[in-house]
Amino acid sequence: MKLLLLAGDIDAPLAHIRLRTPLCALAARNGWTVRAKSFHACTGLDLMQADVVVVQRGFLPRALRLQQRARALGKAVVYEIDDLLTELPPHVTNRDSVLAHRHVLLRCLQVADALSVSTERLLRELAVDCPGLPPAVIVPNHAAPMPTPPAGPVAALEAASAPVALIVASTERLASTPLFAALGDLAPGTFRVIAVGPPAQQLRDAGIAAEAHALMPREQFIGLVRSLPNPLAVIPLEASRFAACKSPIKWFEYSQLGIPVVCSDVEPYRGVMQDRVTGRLVVNTAQAWRLALGELIGDAAARRALAAAAHDEVRRRHGVDRALAAWEQVVAAACAAARQRDDAARRRLQRLAAVVTAPLESVLVRVREHNRARLQRRRG
């Protein structure tokens, strides 16, 4: 089996987590081959050499053309999606571009032999926005393998004399901002804020001092948070249809590193975390955030207990093996649908050929009958 993985940026962390890590592992196990390309670099020859083409989050005309061309070549096409792209909130960076091409996105969803979807809720909401979806398989997000595995169940650094390092990291601006007011009310000197990505500017605008970092590759980010003494990950998330369709992948990442997590009490975190056991779930008010952060900043033992329980839970229930099994189902479903599609196309071609050739065959029959009659007359 030859797999071709396509994405807008095939080297982006999301492409690694959702596509390259699980599918390369699956290919190694099954003796398959994998090639990975960004949309702009994919050629017709790449499509011809593949058996299965996996397209991640395509919504521009080029992605649709690649899907259509692959299907015309008889290839199985999988469309991979992990966000409710049909309804993006205003704080998402590429919202305007996706909305402007929403009709293309809907066609990309439909012009596939199978879908890979990250959560059950996302599949339900996509079906509302885009009727007539192809067969879908839930491929859950997973705790992606670490570049260097942690030494133990709690790998975070501890230093009694150092302030707690509050980690606020996101590829997008934050829509839920009660956290900012809460940070302004916490006791100075007991914490410091490490901001990665767009939230850094939001914190500065709110008057919160923060150590700002640009977005960085996953391995570099892991190195950064591993170096922080007394780390505590902070994940504010709004209650929205879009947010509820996400998966708790940030909790997976931090928990693997032995870093305790405090996050908004909304889906998807509400569905996997147990409050005060594997993390803290906080109502989205400034008072609730201030109380929760104040408690955890002042209680190192509670932070250690949350980190240890979450680390064990993620390793036990959210490993990459679940994703591998689901991807195997996706590939099988896409190949089966492609075979049926090819059979149907072949039947259509055969019917067309029968219609086109019928007059010629009629003439040939009459010629053969004439020749047989003439031969009989000669013999008689």
What does it look like?
The chain is α/β, with parallel strands linked by helices and 380 residues long. The chain has two domains: 2-140 and 321-342, Rossmann fold (3-Layer(aba) Sandwich), CATH 3.40.50.2000; 164-318, Rossmann fold. It has 14 helices and twelve strands. The chain has helices spanning 13-30, 44-48, 61-72, 95-100, 102-110, 120-129, 178-185, 199-205, 218-226, 241-244, 249-256, 286-297, 300-317, 320-379; strands spanning 2-7, 33-38, 52-56, 76-81, 114-117, 136-138, 164-169, 191-196, 211-213, 231-235, 261-264, 280-282. The strands form two sheets. It has a six-stranded parallel β-sheet. Strands 9-8-7-10-11-12 form a six-stranded parallel β-sheet, sandwiched between helices.
List keywords for this structure.
49% helix; 6-stranded parallel sheet; 380 residues; alpha/beta; Rossmann fold; 12 strands
Topology of this structure?
Elements: E1 2-7, H1 13-30, E2 33-38, H2 44-48, E3 52-56, H3 61-72, E4 76-81, H4 95-100, H5 102-110, E5 114-117, H6 120-129, E6 136-138, E7 164-169, H7 178-185, E8 191-196, H8 199-205, E9 211-213, H9 218-226, E10 231-235, H10 241-244, H11 249-256, E11 261-264, E12 280-282, H12 286-297, H13 300-317, H14 320-379
Parallel strand pairs: 1-2, 1-3, 3-4, 4-5, 5-6, 7-8, 7-10, 8-9, 10-11, 11-12
Helix pairs in contact: 1-14, 3-5, 7-12, 11-13
